[in-house]
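BUG: 3D viewer hangs when loading the predicted structure for this chain

Environment: internal workstation, default settings.
Expected: structure renders.
Actual: progress bar stalls at 90%.

Input used:
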Amino acid sequence: DKTQNRQLEINSITINGAEKVNKASILKQMNTKQSPSGFSKFLYSLGLGLGSPAEYFSLPNFQSDINGIKKNYKNNGFDEIKIDTTLRVDLGKNRIDITIDIYEGYQSLIDSVVFLKLDSLEPEIKNEVVAKSNLIKDNPFRVGDIKGEINRINMTLSNNGYPNAFIENSSVTLAKILSNNNYRIFIPVQTGEKCYFGDTKIVLEADKDRYISEEIIYKQLEFKPNMPYSSDKRLESERNINRLGIFDFARLEQKTAQMKDSVYYIPINVLLKPKDRYELAPEIFVNDQDNSFNFGAGLSATIRNIGGGAQNLVGKVSGRAQSLDQ
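Structure tokens produced before the viewer hung:
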């Protein structure tokens, strides 16, 4: 009742018992904050953008913070976590001191990981999924590590011909072994059909009618038709084309997979928007070279994609004036 009827400044927050989780990280995740020093509050009162305001206690926010701390502990394998809190109110000074006592208990470890539905994969790809797992026996159990493992598996499969592979978070099963309080993790993988790169089509923006050698574009591609599909190779090819410096943007668009002779192929459209072929850019410079104040102006001219070969020519003309010696 005392905390609900008064505006109480938070004088201190003390955390006891946090040994395996850093106290600073617990305080950082809380919305309940300790008030800054009197000097900091004074600076803030001046309205100059300095210092920090006083922090006041909110019971709903504090209860939410405690629930958040418990959830974070449980997500890191501390199923036995218990938290007690003590609120000491000084009505004379309208302030409150908060003590949080944490009983961490045992942190569960990873007992084993079982990957399901991988039998359709080629042995080398299956081995890469299993052998390179980041979920290692006897490592601390962490929900964040499982999510990272799901991303790793999806990326591995996407770069080896399985762009439609996915793992639903809700499908991952955790089995707690009562004899040691550790976890066995079951990860079912939906691989989808194997896909290959299909035909590649270059699509140049219609209102930029100029010749650009398709051979130059194809040389930037890290893949060829009939190669197993790879998201990384598609993205790296996109970066290669953009590095030519003659396009406002270049994007490799993945089309819907098409079946041919019982094999799935993914056509790729290379979407290109060329930069203006001619560009003039004014330049102004100042410096104090040779102990004098110098200023000047110049003009930079760029001719892009000379002869359609993705070569650029840059020329500059500049003049300089010198003022009084320093």
